[in-house]
């Protein structure tokens, strides 16, 4: 299992970064990204601390820990600037909190995020064909999520991605220990979203490519 969207107590998760990484390793994960929620007021506080936690884990553990962020509920016109600042501070994976059907995310977030050249657009809701095409062109991965609520649009996201050639990844959006899942459960979620076993294998390859990119 590779999980590139998780949260520690540096945002709305409940675990210390070290415990989150440890629990993921014990669950058989090969890689995990810590992507706590940030906005203009918190990214400069969160990123250095997540980097320290990931560096400590990578010195002694077999799991690959990646420092990242999830830019969340930021106005669309501000996203590109925050993406640049987060990368400059050392975030190796940039996720944007997409236009989920269960939260009042500002309209235009999906488009601005994809235009900004992020890595993953999380739970993008009823994403439009034009934005999916742009994600395919810009190499932005769309997320199939295990998270309750956000997962309601998984089927739509899967269909759009397959139709227009966008890359998919599957993440948990973990906030609590019970949110971590096995690879077998992840495959069930993918198939339940209308994807095939081959599609799931491709998603895992996409995740591995993001991990390799984050290490360089």
Structure description:
By secondary structure, the chain is α/β, with parallel strands linked by helices. The chain has one domain (2-214): TIM Barrel (Alpha-Beta Barrel), CATH 3.20.20.140. The protein is 45% helix and 18% strand. It is built from 8 helices and 7 strands; from the N terminus they run βαβαβαβαβαβαβαα. It has helices spanning 17-26, 43-60, 76-89, 109-115, 129-138, 154-164, 183-192, 197-214; strands spanning 2-6, 31-38, 64-71, 93-97, 120-122, 141-145, 168-171. A 7-stranded parallel sheet has the order 1-2-3-4-5-6-7. Strand 2, helix 2 and strand 3 (64-71) form a beta-alpha-beta unit. The protein is globular and about 40 Å long. The two termini are 21 Å apart. The model has no long low-confidence stretch (mean pLDDT 98).
Features:
8 helices, 216 residues, alpha/beta, 7-stranded parallel beta sheet, TIM Barrel
Radius of gyration: 16 Å
Shape, per Cα inertia axes: globular
CATH C-level: Alpha Beta
The H-level CATH homologous superfamily, spelled out, is: Metal-dependent hydrolases
CATH architecture: Alpha-Beta Barrel
- Percent of residues in helices comes to 40-55%
Low-confidence stretches: none
Mean residue pLDDT: 98
């Amino acid at each position: 299992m590779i999980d590139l969207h998780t949260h520690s107590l540096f945002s709305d998760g409940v675990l210390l970064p070290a415990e989150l990484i440890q629990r993921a390793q014990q669950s058989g994960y090969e890689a995990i990204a810590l992507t706590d929620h940030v906005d203009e007021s918190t990214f400069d506080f969160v990123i250095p601390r997540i980097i320290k936690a990931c560096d400590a884990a990578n010195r002694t553990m077999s799991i690959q820990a990646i420092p990242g962020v999830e830019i969340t509920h930021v106005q669309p016109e501000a996203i590109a600037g925050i993406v640049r600042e987060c990368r400059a501070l050392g975030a190796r994976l940039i996720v944007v909190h997409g236009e989920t059907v269960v939260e009042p995310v500002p309209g235009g977030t999906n488009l601005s995020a994809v235009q900004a050249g992020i890595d993953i657009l999380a739970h993008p809701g009823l994403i439009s064909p034009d934005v999916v095409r742009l994600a395919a062109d810009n190499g932005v991965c769309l997320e199939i999520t295990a998270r309750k609520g956000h997962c309601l649009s998984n089927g739509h996201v899967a269909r759009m991605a397959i139709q227009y050639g966008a890359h998919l990844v599957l993440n948990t959006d973990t906030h609590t220990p019970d949110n971590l899942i096995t690879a077998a459960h992840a495959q069930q979620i993918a198939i339940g979203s209308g994807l095939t076993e081959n599609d799931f294998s491709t998603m895992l390859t996409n995740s591995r490519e993001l991990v390799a990119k984050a290490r360089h």
